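Re: [help] complex structure
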Amino acid sequence: MNVLQTDGLGRRYRTNWALRDCTLTIPEGNLVALVGPNGAGKSTLLNLVVGLTSPTAGGVTVLGGQPAGSRAALDGIAFVAQDMPLYRHYSVADMVHQTRNLNLSFDTAYARRRITELGIDGKRKAGKLSGGQQAQLALTLALARHPRLLVLDEPTARLDPLARHDFMATVMTAMADDGVSVLLSSHMLAELERVADYLVLISHGRVRVDDTVENLLDRHRLVTAPTTAPAPDGDWQIIEARTTPSQTHLLVRLDSSQAPLPPGCESRPVGIEELTLAYLRETPASQSPTLIGATQ
Amino acid sequence: MTPVAVPTMHVRPVSWTRLSWVSWRRARATLAAIAAVLAVIAFYLVLNGERMRSTYATHLACTPVHSASCQFAWENFRNGYSQPGLPGVILLFLPGIIGGFVGAPILARELETGTFRYAWTQGAGRMRWAIAAIVPGAVGVAVIMAGFGALVTWHNKPLLDSGITPRLHPTVFPVTGLAVAGWALVGFALGVLAGLLWRRVLPALATALAAWFGLALLAAQIRMHYLPPLTTTSLDLSGKNFGIDQWWTKSGVRVSDAAINAVLQAIGFQQPGGSGKITVNPGKADPSVDPVQYLIQHGYTQVTSYQPDSRYWTFQWIELGWLTALALALLAAAFWFLRRRPA
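Output below.
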C-alpha cells in the first residue's frame, strides 16, 4: 500500500504556486523526511495530505487511494502541526477527552499511560506545560488514535536537544510497535540522518529528490578531482561543485553506477546531511543539473 | 504513477453524542460569561419592574382622579419610567452584542491560534466539527435572548398599559417577543462569518457589531411598512398604537403643511413642518382658542396614520422570518467558505 500518492499535485495562492507538479509515490512503513528551504512548499504539501487545503492542480490520495480529506483519510491520519496547537486553557485531561470525542477510535489507556510516564499532571492547563511537554502531549494525542500515517510538521523546531531526542524516540517506538508510517518535515538534517529512510526534497515549489535513503546514498558520491583532470565519461550529474586552486570538489549523481572515475579522482560516499545541503544550495536557475561534460 | 482509483472506504461518522461534549466544553466558558452579564441586567429589570409596578399601582389606585395628588402620582410614574435611559440603550444593543460575542470566536479563535490544524484534522472532520459548534450556538443565543425578551416584556407592561410606550416602539419591538431572538441570531451569524473571513476575533467582532447596527437602523426604517398603515380621523388614538404620521385634509383632499400654517399663523399659531404638532407663537395667540378645534370648525380633518397594537405579533413573526432567513443565509455562506477555504 502507498501511504501517499500524488500526481501533478499543485497548489496556487493567488498568482504564486506554493507547490507545483508534485508527483510522489511513497510506500507504507517508511519514515519519510520532507526537507527544503523555508517557503519551499513543505507545509503546503503536508496541508494537502491532511486535507486542510485542497489542490489547485493534480490529485492526492492517501492510505492506498483514499482522497485526502475524506472521512477515511481523516480517520487514518494523525497530524501534529507546527508549534503544537493545543487549547491553552484546556486541562491535559480535557485535551485527551476532547480528542477521544473527535475520533472514532481513541486509545485512552495509552494516552493516560503516556502522560503519566511523562510526569505530566492531567489537571494542568495545556498552555502551562513546557515546550517539550506540549510537543509530547500533541504527539500522544495523535498516536493514541493509532493512525496508519502520522504527519508531523517541523515537530522539533522549537525543542531543546533533550526534548527533541525524547520526541523522536516516541515516534520511533510507535513505528516499531504500531507499524505507523511517518511523514515528517524538518530542518534538523543531522537528526534525519539517524531516523529517516525515505527523503523528499522540495525546493521552489518543486520536488527535487524523492527516493529511499538507501538508494540516494548508493547513487551519490563526493568526488575530489585535480583541477587539471579531464572530464569523466558517463552519466555523471553534478549537483554541486566547489573549486579550490588545486582541487574541485564535486557532489555527483550516478545514474549508472558503472561509470568509471577519471584518473586522479577520488570518490567517497556521501551523508544525507551533505547531500541535502548540496541540493538546497542549488539556485533556481540551475534546476536541471548540468552534465559535467557540458561545463568543460 | 497515476494514483489508482480505489473505491472510497466507508467509515462511519463520529457520533453527535461525542461531538456534543466537544461543543459543550468549548461553549461553557462563553455561557458562564453571558449568564453573568444577563444576570446583572435581569436583576436591574426585575428591581426596576417591581418599583415601576408599585408606582403605577399608586397612580391607578388614586382617587379622585383629577386631584392634584393623583396628578402628582401620574407625573411621578411617567417622569420616572417613560425614558429608557442608559439601560434602555444597553438593552437595545444586547441581542447584537450577545450574538456577536458567541458567534465571532467560534471560527476566528481556531484560525487565530492555529488550533484549527488540530481541530479540523481529527476523525470527525471540519464540517461535522463546525456543525457541532455552530448549530447549538445559534439555537442557544436565540433561546436565551427570547427568554430575556420575555423579561423585558414583563418589565415594560405598565408602560404599555398606561399608553406611554407602545409595544411597536422601535426601542421595545426589537428587544421583545420573537424579534429579539432573530436579532441575536443575526448577530451570531454575522460573527461566525466575519470570524471566518477575518481569521481574528476582535476585528471579526467589531465588523459583526457594525454590520448588525447598520441592519438595525435599516430595520427601524422599514418595520412600520410590514403592512400598510391604518389611518384614522379620531383625535383620540390609544397610546398603545404606534403613530406614524399626521396631516390635515379638507373635503377629502390632503392639505399641504404650508396651507395649514398659513391658516394658523393668521390666528397666531404655527405648525412646524410635517410633525402634526402645533405650537403657540408666544404673545400672538388667543389662549382661549384651541388651534385643532379651530381647524376642525373650519372644515379641516386631522388624519393620523398608525400601526395598531394588534399587529404586534404579526410584525414579530415577519421580523423573525426575515432575520432568520438572513441568519441562515449568512451561516450557509460561512459553511460554503469553510469547505473551500484553504487553511
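The longest helix of chain B spans residues 16-61.
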